[in-house]
Structures are given as structure tokens and as C-alpha cells.
Amino acid sequence: MLKFIRSLYFGKRLFYALFGISILFLISFWFSPLYSITWILTSVLGILVLTDVSALFRVNGIEADRILPEKFSNSDDNRVVIEIANKYGFRLNAEVIDEIPVQFQKRDFLKQIRFTPHKSIEFEYFLKPLERGEYIFGNLNIYVSSIFKLAKRRYTFNKDQMVKVYPSFIQMKKLDFLALDQKINLHGIKRIRRIGHTMEFEQIKEYVRGDDVRTINWKATAKHGNLMVNQFQDERSQPIYSIIDCGRVMKMPFEGLSLLDYAINSSLAFSNVALKKKDKVGMLSFSNKIDHLQKASSKLSQLSRIMEALYNVNTGFYDSDFSLLYSRVKKYISHRSLLMIYTNFEHMSGLQRQLPFLKALAKQHLVVVIFFENTEMIRLTEIAPANLSESAHQTIAEQYAHNKSLMARELQRHGIQALLTPPQDLSINAINKYLEIKSRGLL
């Protein structure tokens, strides 16, 4: 009985009808013939309500399921599918309210559907998480009513479904093609000027437009009568490490994501491309201590290990200890490696404090320091000032942006590769930097 009461609701039409009947009873105080008619209408309404409730509760006429992917991709649109089957023998009106995880702070989900008898329907919606972790869905609530819409019956399904949000593997798949063809050159995607290479000989092939004329094989050209060139392949199995700063400087948010999440998404996409290039990839995260260290490997399972490690990486409010990073790298990474260090410097003084440790790392390894442009400051420099106050703010923003460029030059002056990038372009630019280093044979 309690279950019946909890699942029974009444529609707006019933309350409108009761309000109308109340008005008629009031009017019948002065016009007595209306009193009998009002009671007849009340009886008819009661019969309709009982019929409606009986039809809805006679059988369990709704089956539904919320279909979730195995995992969500952070900062991407993830598809959620709702399947509903109508087993009633009459038309239904349904209101679907899905209890979305609290992380989304979305409390206005409502989907209105009309069902034909004994038919099924499917619809989808998309969720874009901005934090990694476990997301728990509540009830999938379906309120059904007949054509009278006097009463409703609530069905609930799929309580407490959980899905984990991992670093952006969708972004990783989108950038996967960059590892397949060195000649791909799409506007805004791959911007590499090939300067030189240290590659191993692979084969002799016929010259096509775009091949480096310096690789022409003149003996083979004379023999075949057509221009022939030597084709080379990249050096294989070089150790590549993504080193992620988890200190407080990485908590700064841009467009809903922290700098740490941008770095994590980029590390996953970059590691996938490096594995496709037959290099060994590893990962290290640190702040005031070493959080995770995944030794470089070229095994196919390495990407899964890195994803699981990145899933648990979090930032705090501690200052990052670059001296600890140097000591751990010197102890555990003995071979010359490419170190992609994701961090951020807001002031030249912050860079100067860490520069001795970066220079020490650069003596044994090829170090690429990746830090971020402040896009809000850049946007401020592009706005025409309307008054003196805005002009002063713009001047400070321009100085701030110029200091970022000075930091990149300071790193390069000490033989350290620098990549200054907007957060939203981080993955593309990091992969381009890696491919440039491969093509130049710097490692």
C-alpha cells in the first residue's frame, strides 16, 4: 500500500477540475439548480480518476534502462542513452527526469514523450564533465499518464549507477592520426618546418613532389631513368617522459578546466602518439613529493597504465619541489630521455628559482618546459580601451604577456626547449613539439 501511495501523483487537470467544481458549488449557493449538476460533475470526475488510476496501476507497463559508456572522457561530450518500452495497450504521455550526478549541478532535466501502445522509444543526451573521478547517477524517474492526464504513476530505474571519468581519451583518439603519416599538414593542426633529420635508411622509392631533394639517390636515378630518393624511418624506442607539476600553480582554471587537467589530457594524447612512433613512454607527477612514477616502456599495455595513473593525479596547495624532481630523475632515469615538463610560471622570479634544477636536468636529458599563456590577459590586450582605467589595465596585461615571452627566451638561452601555449591548444602543440624534435634528431 505504501509503495502504491509513493508512486501515485495527480495531474494539473485534476486540480483545475476541482477548482472549477469549487467555483460551481459557490455559485450554487445563489442558484440552487446548479447544485445538483455540480454533484453530477463531481461524480463523473471521481469515476474518471478511479478509471485512470486503475488503468495505470493494473500492470507494470513501463520498462526502461539508462545505458552508460564504460567510462567518461573528461572535458568531452559523453553520450548517455535512455531506452523506454511501453507495455500498456493505450497511448501514454511520459515525463522523463534523470537524476544527473551532482558534479554537473543540473537540476532541470526533463524530457516529455508520447508513446503509442506496445512501442519502444530511445533518446540520448550528452554530458561534459570537467573533473576526473567517480560520478554517481540517481534514479531514472518516469511519470506516465493516460490521455485524461488526471493521475500519474511514477516508475524508477537504475538507481546509483556509477561511471568513472578518465583523462580525455576522446581527444587522444582524435589526435591519433598525427602518428600515422609524417606528411599530414592540415591548417591549424600540424605546423612543422623540417630542418634536418637523423633517420635510419628504410628503402629507395620514386621521387614525388614534397620529398627532400637532399635525399636523391643519383646512382639509383641513373639506373632507373627516373628520380629516386632514399626513404628513412625515425629512430625507434627512445625514452619519453611526461612530467606533470601538481603544485598550486596548476590549479588555475581556464574555461572550466584546471591547468592540471589540460596537462593530463595532453600527456595521454602525447603518450599515445609516442607509442605509435615506437618510442618508450613513461609518466611522473610531483609537487612537494613524488606522487607517481611510471617507468618508460613501449608495451601496448603501457597506455592503460598511464591512464590509470593519470586518473588519480590531483593537485594541492603546495609549492612544487624541483630539487626533489631533479634527485628522483637522476636516480631512476639513467638513460638520456625526452622530458616534457608540464608546469606554469607567472613571474620571472618564479622561473629563476627553478632554473638551476632545470639546467641540471638539461645536462643529461632533453628538457622541454611547457607553460601556459594567460588567455584572459591576451584577450584584454585585444580590446580597445574606452577610458583611462581600461587603458592602464591593458598596459599591465601587455607587460604580463611580454614577460611570458621573456621566460621562454630565458629558458632557450640556457639550452632548454620552451613551449608557451594557450591551454586549449596544449595537446596539439605538445605533439607538434615532439614530432619536431624527432625530425630534427635532437634526442
UniProtKB/TrEMBL annotation:
Transmembrane helix among keywords: yes
Record-annotated DUF58 domain positions: 204-386
Listed PANTHER family: BLL2464 PROTEIN, SLR2013 PROTEIN
Residues that span the membrane, as ranges: 14-31, 37-57
Taxonomic lineage from the root: Bacteria, Pseudomonadati, Bacteroidota, Flavobacteriia, Flavobacteriales
Keyword Transmembrane: yes
Pfam families per record: DUF58
Entry keyword set: Membrane, Transmembrane, Transmembrane helix
Protein name: DUF58 domain-containing protein
InterPro entries (UniProt xref): DUF58 (IPR002881)
Domain of life: Bacteria
